[in-house]
Amino acid sequence: MRIGIGYDSHRLVEERKLIIGGVHIPFEKGLLGHSDGDVLCHAIIDSIIGALGLGDIGKHFPDTDQRWKDASSIELLKHIVELTRAYGYEVSWIDSVIVAEKPKLSGYIEHMKDSISKSGIPYGSVNIKAKTNEGMGLTGHGEGIVAYAVCLLRRFESQD
Ligand code: MG
Questions:
Q1: What are phi and psi of 148, to 5 degrees?
Q2: Ligand 1 geometric centre to CA of 124 (Å)
Q3: pLDDT one-digit tens code per residue, 100-137
Q4: In angstroms, what is the span from residue 157 Cα to ligand 1's centroid?
Q5: Residue 159 Cα, ligand 1 centroid: separation in angstroms?
Q6: 152 CA to middle of ligand 1, Å?
Q7: Does the global pTM surpass 0.85?
Protein backbone atom coordinates (compact mmCIF):
# COMPACT_ATOMS: atom_id res chain seq x y z
CA MET A 1 0.00 0.00 0.00
CA ARG A 2 1.05 3.62 -0.49
CA ILE A 3 -0.13 6.82 1.19
CA GLY A 4 -0.04 10.39 -0.09
CA ILE A 5 -0.94 13.88 1.10
CA GLY A 6 -2.20 16.79 -1.00
CA TYR A 7 -2.81 20.48 -0.34
CA ASP A 8 -4.08 23.28 -2.54
CA SER A 9 -5.30 26.85 -2.28
CA HIS A 10 -6.85 29.20 -4.82
CA ARG A 11 -7.79 32.86 -4.68
CA LEU A 12 -11.48 33.84 -4.79
CA VAL A 13 -12.17 36.42 -7.52
CA GLU A 14 -15.16 37.94 -9.25
CA GLU A 15 -16.35 36.76 -12.66
CA ARG A 16 -15.27 33.16 -12.16
CA LYS A 17 -17.55 30.18 -11.59
CA LEU A 18 -17.04 28.44 -8.25
CA ILE A 19 -16.27 24.77 -8.99
CA ILE A 20 -15.40 22.48 -6.08
CA GLY A 21 -15.27 18.69 -6.35
CA GLY A 22 -16.54 19.02 -9.92
CA VAL A 23 -19.73 20.77 -8.77
CA HIS A 24 -20.78 24.28 -9.78
CA ILE A 25 -21.76 26.09 -6.57
CA PRO A 26 -23.73 29.34 -6.95
CA PHE A 27 -21.67 32.15 -5.35
CA GLU A 28 -20.64 35.74 -6.09
CA LYS A 29 -17.01 34.70 -6.69
CA GLY A 30 -15.06 31.76 -8.10
CA LEU A 31 -11.57 30.31 -7.83
CA LEU A 32 -8.82 31.76 -10.00
CA GLY A 33 -6.67 29.22 -11.82
CA HIS A 34 -5.31 28.02 -15.15
CA SER A 35 -7.85 25.18 -15.15
CA ASP A 36 -11.25 25.54 -13.43
CA GLY A 37 -9.44 26.19 -10.11
CA ASP A 38 -11.06 23.18 -8.44
CA VAL A 39 -9.14 23.23 -5.18
CA LEU A 40 -10.51 19.89 -3.88
CA CYS A 41 -9.73 17.95 -7.07
CA HIS A 42 -6.23 19.45 -7.12
CA ALA A 43 -5.55 18.39 -3.51
CA ILE A 44 -6.82 14.86 -4.30
CA ILE A 45 -4.67 14.74 -7.47
CA ASP A 46 -1.58 15.78 -5.51
CA SER A 47 -2.26 13.16 -2.82
CA ILE A 48 -2.40 10.42 -5.48
CA ILE A 49 0.69 11.71 -7.32
CA GLY A 50 2.48 11.80 -3.96
CA ALA A 51 1.53 8.20 -3.18
CA LEU A 52 2.83 7.16 -6.61
CA GLY A 53 6.07 9.05 -5.96
CA LEU A 54 5.67 11.00 -9.19
CA GLY A 55 6.29 14.59 -8.09
CA ASP A 56 3.39 17.04 -8.08
CA ILE A 57 0.43 18.33 -10.07
CA GLY A 58 2.47 21.10 -11.73
CA LYS A 59 4.77 18.52 -13.28
CA HIS A 60 1.86 16.59 -14.81
CA PHE A 61 -0.38 19.54 -15.76
CA PRO A 62 1.89 22.60 -16.25
CA ASP A 63 0.05 25.94 -16.39
CA THR A 64 2.09 26.80 -19.49
CA ASP A 65 0.28 23.99 -21.36
CA GLN A 66 -2.74 25.32 -23.28
CA ARG A 67 -4.31 21.83 -23.15
CA TRP A 68 -5.19 22.44 -19.48
CA LYS A 69 -6.46 26.04 -19.88
CA ASP A 70 -9.96 26.13 -18.30
CA ALA A 71 -9.86 22.31 -18.19
CA SER A 72 -12.29 20.42 -15.99
CA SER A 73 -10.30 19.16 -13.02
CA ILE A 74 -12.45 16.01 -13.00
CA GLU A 75 -10.79 15.25 -16.36
CA LEU A 76 -7.34 15.86 -14.82
CA LEU A 77 -8.28 13.54 -11.94
CA LYS A 78 -9.45 10.91 -14.43
CA HIS A 79 -6.08 11.12 -16.14
CA ILE A 80 -4.30 10.55 -12.80
CA VAL A 81 -6.60 7.63 -11.87
CA GLU A 82 -5.67 6.01 -15.21
CA LEU A 83 -1.99 6.64 -14.47
CA THR A 84 -2.47 4.98 -11.05
CA ARG A 85 -3.84 1.85 -12.74
CA ALA A 86 -0.98 1.88 -15.22
CA TYR A 87 1.41 1.74 -12.25
CA GLY A 88 -0.45 -1.29 -10.85
CA TYR A 89 -2.34 0.52 -8.06
CA GLU A 90 -5.96 1.44 -7.37
CA VAL A 91 -7.36 4.19 -5.15
CA SER A 92 -8.51 2.48 -1.98
CA TRP A 93 -9.53 5.54 0.06
CA ILE A 94 -9.51 9.34 -0.05
CA ASP A 95 -10.22 11.57 2.93
CA SER A 96 -10.35 15.32 2.44
CA VAL A 97 -11.12 18.70 4.02
CA ILE A 98 -12.28 21.88 2.30
CA VAL A 99 -11.73 25.10 4.28
CA ALA A 100 -14.06 27.90 3.17
CA GLU A 101 -15.74 30.62 5.19
CA LYS A 102 -18.42 31.05 2.50
CA PRO A 103 -20.45 29.66 0.81
CA LYS A 104 -21.82 26.89 2.99
CA LEU A 105 -20.75 23.64 1.34
CA SER A 106 -22.36 20.89 3.42
CA GLY A 107 -25.32 20.58 1.03
CA TYR A 108 -22.99 19.86 -1.92
CA ILE A 109 -20.84 17.08 -0.45
CA GLU A 110 -22.87 14.18 -1.91
CA HIS A 111 -22.90 15.88 -5.33
CA MET A 112 -19.12 16.27 -5.13
CA LYS A 113 -18.65 12.57 -4.34
CA ASP A 114 -20.91 11.69 -7.26
CA SER A 115 -18.99 14.01 -9.57
CA ILE A 116 -15.60 12.68 -8.41
CA SER A 117 -16.80 9.12 -9.10
CA LYS A 118 -16.80 10.07 -12.82
CA SER A 119 -12.99 10.10 -12.61
CA GLY A 120 -13.00 6.39 -11.70
CA ILE A 121 -12.69 6.79 -7.90
CA PRO A 122 -15.76 4.97 -6.48
CA TYR A 123 -18.40 7.08 -4.69
CA GLY A 124 -17.94 4.92 -1.58
CA SER A 125 -14.18 5.46 -1.45
CA VAL A 126 -14.20 9.22 -0.82
CA ASN A 127 -14.91 11.26 2.29
CA ILE A 128 -15.23 15.05 2.14
CA LYS A 129 -15.45 17.38 5.12
CA ALA A 130 -16.24 21.09 4.87
CA LYS A 131 -15.07 23.53 7.54
CA THR A 132 -14.79 27.24 8.09
CA ASN A 133 -11.66 28.79 9.59
CA GLU A 134 -13.61 30.66 12.28
CA GLY A 135 -13.00 33.98 10.51
CA MET A 136 -9.20 33.73 10.72
CA GLY A 137 -6.58 33.94 7.98
CA LEU A 138 -6.89 33.75 4.19
CA THR A 139 -9.87 31.40 4.22
CA GLY A 140 -11.55 33.11 7.14
CA HIS A 141 -11.26 36.53 5.47
CA GLY A 142 -12.70 35.10 2.23
CA GLU A 143 -9.50 35.69 0.22
CA GLY A 144 -9.42 32.10 -0.95
CA ILE A 145 -10.39 28.48 -0.40
CA VAL A 146 -8.06 25.72 0.76
CA ALA A 147 -8.29 21.92 0.52
CA TYR A 148 -6.36 19.02 2.02
CA ALA A 149 -6.50 15.36 1.01
CA VAL A 150 -4.90 12.09 1.95
CA CYS A 151 -5.13 8.93 -0.12
CA LEU A 152 -4.39 5.27 0.28
CA LEU A 153 -3.43 3.30 -2.81
CA ARG A 154 -3.59 -0.48 -2.87
CA ARG A 155 -1.61 -2.67 -5.25
CA PHE A 156 -3.79 -4.77 -7.57
CA GLU A 157 -4.16 -8.38 -6.50
CA SER A 158 -2.27 -10.64 -8.88
CA GLN A 159 -4.67 -12.50 -11.19
CA ASP A 160 -2.24 -15.46 -11.54
MG1 MG B 1 -4.65 24.18 -7.83
A1: -125, 145
A2: 24
A3: 999 999 999 999 999 999 999 999 999 999 999 999 99
A4: 33
A5: 37
A6: 21
A7: yes
